[in-house]
User: Fold this.
Amino acid sequence: MQANAPTASQAMDPMVLMAALYVFALAAFLGYQVISRVPPLLHTPLMSATNAISGISLVGSLVIAGAYEFDYHKLIVGGPQSRASIVTIMGFVAVFTATVNVVSGFGLTDRMLKMFRKDVKGKEAHK
Amino acid sequence: MDPSQTVQHLAAHPNYILEFTYLIAAILFVFGLKALSHPDTARRGMFLAEGGMAAAIIGTLFHQDIHFFGWIIAGLILGSLVGAAFAIWVPMTAMPQRTALSHAFGAVAAALVGIAEFVMHAGTMTLFTRSALGLEVMLGTLTTTGSLIAAGKLQDVIRGTPIQFKGQQYVNLLIFLGMVGCFGYSLYDPSATAFFFGMVALGLLFGVMLVIPIGSADMPVVMSLLNSYAGLSSAATGFVLGNNVLIIAGTLDGFSGLILSVLMCKAMNRSITNVLFGGFGAVQAASTAGAQGVMREIKLDDAAVQLRYASKVVFVPGYGLATAQAQHAVRELANALEGFGVTVKYGIHPVAGRMPGHMNVLLAEANVPYSELIEMEQINPELPTTDVAVVVGANDVVNPDARDNPTSPIAGMPIIEVDRARSVIVLKRGQGRGFSGLENPLFFKPVTHMLYGDAKATLTALTQAVQNV
Assistant:
């Protein structure tokens, strides 16, 4: 811990905070409007798609994984010195899991959506 | 602020291009989800969302705080490989497990980012940021273990029936209060790291405890709820990092899960608290005395004749369709029937299967056009004019007790009223009860005939028989 006493140095500007809350409120409203129009037919792809989209948390993971220097020797020593390395590994795991979600989420969504067709294909063969 | 100052301000802020990329990504995400309102536009919309995602990720690689790329590249490559493997090889029948697992993965990422932020910056965070961080980590940890348990149950690694013990609810309440207490104290004193990590441990434990008492039949609700938690956890990450695209994407995900949870609960006529704390398996003993009688079996050839000379046949699939992997076999039979001029439709109950929309995906995989996949509300009025309703591996969703017997544990749950059809054929593995353990009076009704055996084998044999009639 760099400083134990809470300081205001990184404090979120109250206006920025308010803006973030506005973003949240509007996104909630928008989400409700958009998602309640998705038919039950597509609920599985919807879940898969929103999963992939929330994999955007990857952008946070990337910064964690790349912000600090990883030093194997410091990691072995332990204590406060090892902190940056531990955090880097946590970032790495987060990048991994979020990437899996993004890639498999979009991939599977597309695979599923490809299967939904209106026309009756291959029916003639049975006639 | 005069214009020249604005320019200086932007120039001094190297991330503004990145922020703009995030804005574009957020807009594309919304367009992508909007396109999901129709199957014809859905794929195109997803391409937009993918573009937004790619832009946001590539843009982030230029983030001013990123100095080391080794672990990032390793994570991206490994993640892409595993993700691509999932995307290519996961069978449609395993979608529920895969989705549960992806909720866990999303939650792990959010929890780890939160913990890392706490380790590096807790001392300099405002009270608000620490609150958001606490929420992020609590939701993240409990979703991680909860989703893993759900995935285990769906994959049959863990017993699918509810795991319950005496005083469970009090134990859960205690764990929950402990978790929130640790959260509260670490808000008050951020240097007390033991409390923060206590919260992490209790969050992990709470996730396990929350999901083990829930039976597999209630999984659609649990999956939706975990979806919602994973999303909200991402949104909280956005508040911690001051990142709007995270807030937007997380909130969209969270609300999508919430809306699905509510829909699933409505489709079972139960409240979310009832699903979470009701312990569905526990009430079965009370109502088993209800339906009695004889189940009439039907010969394969007789069933084939019935189907062949029907003018309208409605298939009602349930989870048994997935376990027997019988979706293609159903389609074969339907094709054969349609060849004889029979009108074929599929009645889809919202909670049939283990996740929202499960049956639709399976049948779409088997090449059933979506115009034949009919929702419960639309198919019910058609059933009285239906000659044969074929129930394939469904039980509770066609149980007339839900409608007729107010003392039934599933009383009030909307059902597909196959018993109103002129004739019903039930494909069933054996004479045992369904997953929920409830007796189903449908099986004893005069219109109903049972056809025992593995659904896939039976359907294939039926197709043969229909063609030889």
